[in-house]
Amino acid sequence: MGSGMAEKWQKPVLVGGIGLSVTLWMWQSWQHTLGSLGGDFGGVTLWGGAAAYFGYRWWKRQQPNNPVIVDRSPVNAAKFQRAIAKTQDLINQLQTEQLQSSPSQPDPDLVNTLEAKLDQLRQGTARKELNLLVTGGKAVGKTTLIQVLPPLGDKSITLTETPPLGSIDPANPASDIPATLHQAQTYDLVLFLTTGDLTDSEWQVLQPFAQQQRTLLIFNKQDQYLPLEAAKLVVQLQQRVLGLLPPAAVLGISAAPRPVKVIQQQAIGTDVTWQETPQPNLTALTATLEEILSQERQELVWATSLRQVSTLHQETRGSLNQLRLDRSQPIIEQYQWLAAAAAFANPVPALDLLATGAINTQLIMDLGQIYQQKISLAQAENVVGVLAELLLKLGVVEFSTQSLSHLLKSNLVTYLAGGLIQGASAAYLTKVSGLTLITYFQETQDSSNTEITQFNISKLRDILQKISQSNQLPLLQNLLQQATQKFSASNLPSPETTPAN
Description:
Mean pLDDT: 75
Structural class: alpha/beta
Low-confidence stretches: 36-73, 169-174, 348-352, 409-415, 489-501
Radius of gyration: 33 Å
Distance between the termini: 36 Å
Largest sheet: 5 strands, parallel
Shape: elongated
Strand content: 5-15%
């Protein structure tokens, strides 16, 4: 940790802030001896020191990037190639940061695996066969449809059935939906079967499918209704999914019509009765599939390949985020103990805030560098103020102080209790702030280097609240134990052996 701490003292913002805090404390201690020089000397010195600290705002401001433009072009070769290039850039970034993190022990296996997957996706757009996924709840006719669907001319298609979607059965949780959605990403077209008007659970399942990819909603077993009722149900389904699916994507079929009773009158006055099974009624579906396969075949292939590239991009992003998290954790730990030491050693709370502010400012800028976010000094200082305000409003500061006071009641360090509370609390608040920023960067970053022009305060608040509410007490207990060891081991008088009240 020695070399890491040495690097921290090379930071001008960090050194300046802590140095100014110590200097102001010393001036305040000497103020009574300097009173003869003028009653306002201490105040002038304080304001002069503050002005000197904010003089660090000479830091060069970067010009903002152009605003991000959402690409709304249709799925085609050009859009696919842009996605390929974007993912390739991210893989290259991962490889670069791997070398920076462990130059002597690079791990090429992960990058090689991602590269191989990307090459496979590049070649996959040349396929001619289309893959269709047949899904839906229990007993909606998925297997039967696959068996009776006739060949569609010379078009090559493969149909695959999913297990019944559990969310359609109220007694079965929807644990299989994410897995089915992930499976559907590799298919070009989804046939979602139902046997009547959509239930609420069916609607909840259909939505992510239709939002993710090309989907047809198929009303099967319409032979179980009177013709007028069946036609009315098709219209109801079209209205129910309006905005999610076009009306032409809602079709009525009978994959396995029920046998009907046939009566034939004989000349002698007796009737002959028998059961006859009608042929499947798939006219609407086959006509729609023929049209899609003839007009949208290549676009469907591009769309499927694009979804797969997007999945690979997210996989690469996750690996890069993990690498950056591993690099960030030691930095947060170093800064949290710098903040703790400043709070423990400085008897003037107002000046302690100045040192902590400088530490957190440098922490933000260092984390920004790891996450390839260009943050100016002014922005970092502003975020420090915002986080401090949020920590107060959300009650995190009060919680840490009260909890630490309670934890110290049975501790044998009565005379150090105040300093330990301040130190451990400063470490806790710095750690929470650091974890908040890491999550913020992960959720808002783009694949390319970018300059932050404005922080989303609402998002910062939501992330901070979520992080501060998870495992607060165990984290505080751990920090207090570490703070006790660190500060009790320093050149300080031995603690009293009398338990605290």
